[in-house]
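RECORD TYPE: protein structure
NAME: Phosphoribosyl-ATP pyrophosphatase
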Amino acid sequence: MADSDILQRLEAAIAERVKADPGTSYVAALNAKGQDAVLKKIGEEATETVIAAKSGDRAAIVHEVADLWFHCLVMMGRQGVALDEVLSELERREGRSGIAEKNARPK
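PREDICTED:
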């Protein structure tokens, strides 16, 4: 079983790497290109995740979801959104019907 704290460690690593030299850090280089580049990368990874799922290739699905989550964490760091906020939102939704949750959202 994977270590459940990996997302917290990854969030911390991303926060450190943002400060690094863009010549030596992918995260720093991506951030230096600006928000649109980060958002474009999330779109690419989401598309690759869908393609992997359509193919049914389990290893590709795992790889692409990991890429997507990673880039979402990069974007969250840029936006000042902490992982704990997202985890709290998921926890808030736990055990609720998706339909009921959606219907309870402000219109």
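COMMENT: The domain at 6-84 is CATH 1.10.287.1080 (Helix Hairpins).
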